[in-house]
Amino acid sequence: MLFEQLRVKQYSKQLFVLAPIVFVNTQVSKKILLDGIISFMVFSLISSGIYCANDLMDYHDDLVNPMTRKRPLPSGRISKKAVLISSIVLIISGFVLNLVFSPNLESSAILSLYLLINLIYNAFKIKSDLILSIVFVSFGFPLRFLYGISFNQLPSSFWGATLSFFLAVMLVTGKRWQRNGNSMKDMELKIIEGRQLQHLAYFTSSVLVSCYLVFVTSPISTKHWGQTIFLFSPLPVLTSVLSYLKLLETSVTDKSAIDFQSKILKNPTIVASVATWLAILVVARFDSIH
Fold first, then answer.
1. Confidence of residue 81 (pLDDT cuts 50, 70, 90)
2. Cβ contacts of residue 227 below 8 Å, gap of 6+?
3. What pTM was estimated for this model as a whole?
């Protein structure tokens, strides 16, 4: 029950905090790896605290929502007081851990901005605005990337932040599109919003792949990765994006497709493409160092 309330399953999002170690860092050391683990823990604590705060603000809405009323708080499996205390303790613990291991103000500022954006998102019911809600949620991913850079004191990366943002928009849009197809909304409204989300998903995926191609062939990538196998990395990226869009199309019309995230993780083509991409990065990094 506690893991469910803290959204431990969502901790995979915090991997964006570790991305700079791969994309920006030029050397691998015990300190870098340790700092990466700590930064992952910090963002996970903050995120869990925000989830608890959001659940408190959404309590009455969740009670009447068939998709969320089974969560620990609205279902009565945990008290409001316990969730409030958990939220405060988790957020304070995250900030304290950040200050202990990364005393620079930049990392604290990024955490504060992330916290503020999420509180505004819920307090002002931004989730009710289709496009604005996608932008707000997606903005959290480049913030994770930038936090990883700040915490580990690595050089800034325009491409890393840009790619993480468009990847987030694509994933968030797909999730909204899938939910829209399985929602109880008025049919006409579902069709209108569905078309908007479909166009945005395809547009964003096109921009993502295009940006990645420019990134791979840019002088900074050649200098950082060398002219190696890294030049073949767009192939698994394109394959995974196309497979994702195909899976999304079928999930929108499949009324039983509730847990879209699980379907992504179980898709063999997507899993194989991501694994191939990671393998290419490892080999390319090894070649560039040696």
1. very high
2. none
3. 0.90
